[in-house]
Write a structure and sequence with these properties.
Elements: H1 4-15, H2 24-30, H3 33-53, H4 56-76, H5 81-91, H6 96-102
Helix pairs in contact: 1-4, 3-4
Length: 105
């Protein structure tokens, strides 16, 4: 079975080539990377609001929107989801505190 993020990424790749009048994904990407980033930020804020409200069902829905729009933002900048996942793999087993210190933050 294919991982949901892999299916999402594959769908985004396919729909990015579609007519913007027939695909929300194509329409977002046609608006450019800045608009895609703005939309990701809006969705992230909506997820934060649902987390603060303690509405788990709404947070699940908004979380899905966040993941989708994050992938759109990556695609708009020609960054592969596989690269983000590889970075997560690289960090696996490393303390978040150690990783942050290594970045100088």
């Amino acid at each position: 079975m294919t991982h949901p993020l892999d299916r999402l990424w594959s769908t985004i790749e396919t729909r990015s080539k579609a007519d913007p009048d027939s695909s929300w994904t194509a329409k977002l990407l046609a608006k450019g990377p800045e608009k895609c980033a703005e939309k990701f930020g809006e969705e992230a804020i909506e997820a934060i609001i649902e987390a603060v409200r303690n509405d788990p069902e709404a947070l699940v829905r908004e979380g899905a929107d966040v993941l989708y729009h994050f992938c759109i933002m990556l695609a708009a900048r020609d960054v592969a989801l596989a690269d983000v996942l590889a970075e997560l793999d690289r960090r696996a087993g490393t303390s978040g505190l150690d990783e942050k210190a290594a970045r100088g933050g």
